[in-house]
Amino acid sequence: MATHNDFGILAEDLAVEYLRKNGYKILIRNFRFQKAEIDIIAEKDNLIIVIEVKARSTDAFMLPQEAVTKTKIRSIVSAANHYLEEFNKDKEVRFDIISVMPDDKGKLVIEHIDDAFEAFDAN
Question: What CDD domains does its record include (predicted)?
Answer without folding.
Answer: PoNe_Nuclease
